[in-house]
Amino acid sequence: xxxxxxxxxxxxxxxxxxxxxxxxxxxxxxxxxxxxxxxxxxxxxxxxxxxxxxxxxxxxxxxxxxxxxxxxxxxxxxxxxxxxxxxxxxxxxxxxxxxxxxxxxxxxxxxxxxxxxxxxxxxxxxxxxxxxxxxxxxxxxxxxxxxxxxxxxxxxxxxxxxxxxxxxxxxxxxxxxxxxxxxxxxxxxxxxxxxxxxxxxxxxxxxxxxxxxxxxxxxxxxxxxxxxxxxxxxxxxxxxxxxxxxxxxxxxxxxxxxxxxxxxxxxxxxxxxxxxxxxxxxxxxxxxxxxxxxxxxxxxxxxxxxxxxxxxxxxxxxxxxxxxxxxxxxxxxxxxxxxxxxxxxxxxxxxxxxxxxxxxxxxxxxxxxxxxxxxxxxxxxxxxxxxxxxxxxxxxxxxxxxxxxxxxxxxxxxxxxxxxxxxxxxxxxxxxxxxxxxxxxxxxxxxxxxxxxxxxxxxxxxxxxxxxxxxxxxxxxxxxxxxxxxxxxxxxxxxxxxxxxxxxxxxxxxxxxxxxxxxxxxxxxxxxxxxxxxxxxxxxxxxxxxxxxxxxxxxxxxxxxxxxxxxxxxxxxxxxxxxxxxxxxxxxxxxxxxxxxxxxxxxxxxxxxxxxxxxxxxxxxxxxxxxxxxxxxxxxxxxxxxxxxxxxxxxxxxxxxxxxxxxxxxxxxxxxxxxxxxxxxxxxxxxxxxxxxxxxxxx
Length: 699
Fold this sequence. Notes:
The chain is of the alpha+beta class.
């Protein structure tokens, strides 16, 4: 032993056998250092004894001397404090415990480097817990927790209670616990269940628990895990464990167990605090997520309502509406299944995410006995596992990697319109918010579809009423016209009969007067005028009689060309400045008609065209087969000045005429005769001049 002057021996020799580092100081100098301290400092006894206190800590020298002086003066100063010790390996964080025995000061030196590491771990753990607030997702909170603990080289396990068992969901093995096994180090997802061991049960009820025997706890959790942990710890060495409870919504939710060789019951308090921070972050994330989800749902509903209000047809709503459903639910495939009107079928009205070939295959299926029928009967959204479907739908869903299908009924009052089907690749349940949102979306879809159906039905009835009203008006017009024409016919017959007898006397008188007139007599001109007017009056009587007699044709197959040539030749006689052009197609067959009546029709039309061209012009006659209906078309086209559009229909009214010498009955007789033959007449008169009368005759 070394004395004050460096010799070995003396009263401090017994200190060499102590397991902790110690020095003896007298008069501010080191008079003794035991072997443990010398090994800690990396110095020899000669390099230490006789040195000043600054040898222990150069930076803390003034502080140590001040403490030593106050202690010598009898002042109460703490016996223990921390400082940095200068060693051959560098500075070392230590704890100094000072006691006095007479003139000697005994200094106990304890290495705090391990504790400082532990303290840094706990500080970083507290900082990790504080950084969790504000994260918007529960999964992101847990991910940050797991990553942070892994960075701290902590071994941990995350456990979730499931009834009578506990599910081990996530495990991380730190470097100190991996025994150099590379594949074992790091984070691992686990899906294994075990029993409630004592440490887990205490932590679940009390919030935190400490365990000395990790092998025993693992063995009670699961014999397989007990053997695995026991075999591993025989290579690594003893590990201590503690477990804290993670709460959520005011109720226990999960357990976080950590293991290390330095853990003790003293660390329960900081770990409890960390568990509280994690629980608070999960609650905050859950609240943020719930509010965000509700806001997203409300936004989707608002967009869907806007699309519903502006959609002209239900299909205008399908794409934007079901895109909202897909975005909100994050599903794989979305199908809109609508009930076929009047049939026991569901049809895929719109789909997203289904391959084209598959979409064609499932375009329609029977409603009775289907899952859609069950959901429509229940009237509420539900999630159906793949196993609940019947074949072949079950096999098709499994081949597509589907785990479950969510079905939403489309219902307006008591009327079921169809369903919305969504597929998911993993099992899931609908939250209350999702259920409410999907039900509201289903109401929007069903209301739009049902409203369109009712509008279509209303439009159909309105069109039917309009058609009936038009038919009624036409019938009334025909009735009035028939009554008017009947009365007019009776009047015409009477007038014609009464006029025909005086006309006969006039013609006889005119013939007698002609015989008495000399060729150069002025009275001959007057006789000619009287004769012309008498003939005009006679033609009027003929027209009146023709108009008064209802047509009763006797149809026989007659070639059109012959009748037309006769009528046109009669009408154009003595018209040297008039040119006639023919366009007769050879494939027009003989038509069933009354030759006498139709000859008069063609004659009236030809005369009408000739009278429209008093200075001469071209009359075009065209005959061809009707391509839209069975029959033939006959067209009379003149190059006259044309007819104003407002007079087209009036030309066929009895006694309406635009000619100074016309009777106004020619075209009326034409139309009535054509109607008696099942034919039709129309007028086309362009602004550039000219008129075409187009006659359609049936075969």
